[in-house]
Amino acid sequence: MADTPKFMTTREAAEYCRLHPASLALMRAQGIGPKFFRPADARRYLYREADLINWIEGRPDETPEQRTARFNSWSTGTTRTACETELSSVSEAQLAAAREEVERD
Predict the structure, then answer these.
(1) How far is CA 90 from the centre of its chain?
(2) Which CATH architecture has domain 7-61+92-104?
(3) Packing angle between helix 92-104 and helix 10-17, nearest 10 degrees?
(4) What ranges do the domains of the chain cover?
(5) Longest Cα pair distance anywhere in the chain, in angstroms?
(6) According to the model, what pLDDT value does residue 79 have?
(7) Which are the contacts of 53, defined by CB distance < 8 A and separation ≥ 6?
(8) Do residues 50 and 37 touch, judged by C-beta distance below 8 A?
(9) Does residue 17 sit in helix, strand or coil?
(10) Which end of the chain is more exposed for a tag (fewer CB within 10 A), N or C?
(11) What are 53-74's pLDDT values in tens digits?
(12) Beta-ladder partners of 7
């Protein structure tokens, strides 16, 4: 019998990725985080463990040049500036939705 995929809530997935649940919710709202889905009859978003591993190990949607730039930014200290720029583009509605979801989980 094939292994059943493991599913995690936002809080569990954030812990697995060593992120704050609000960070994961914001990434989801911006479309830059790991793959997720929301069952039709549920209030929560779910993440498959395999999708989290793929996102952590390489973010399959990015090109090799983007991956190299991301790794280089870690060593040059530009990651913080990039994150601050991304967060400044988040609307108040997205922030409120992310906070609300974290409180629900």
Answers:
(1) 14
(2) Orthogonal Bundle (1.10)
(3) 100
(4) 7-61+92-104
(5) 48
(6) 43
(7) none
(8) no
(9) helix
(10) N
(11) 888 887 656 666 766 676 666 5
(12) 48
More confident residue, 20 or 85: 20
- Six-digit token pair at 58? 């390489």
How sure is the predictor about 84, in pLDDT bands with cuts at 50, 70 and 90?
very low
41-64 residues labelled b (16+ CB within 10 A) or e (exposed):
eeeebbbbeebbeebeeeeeeeee
Evaluate the CA torsion angle 93, 32, 50, 72 in order and state its sign. Answer: negative
pLDDT band, very low/low/confident/very high, at 91 (cuts 50, 70, 90): confident
Q: What's the rounded Cα separation, in Å, for the pair 35 and 17?
A: 13
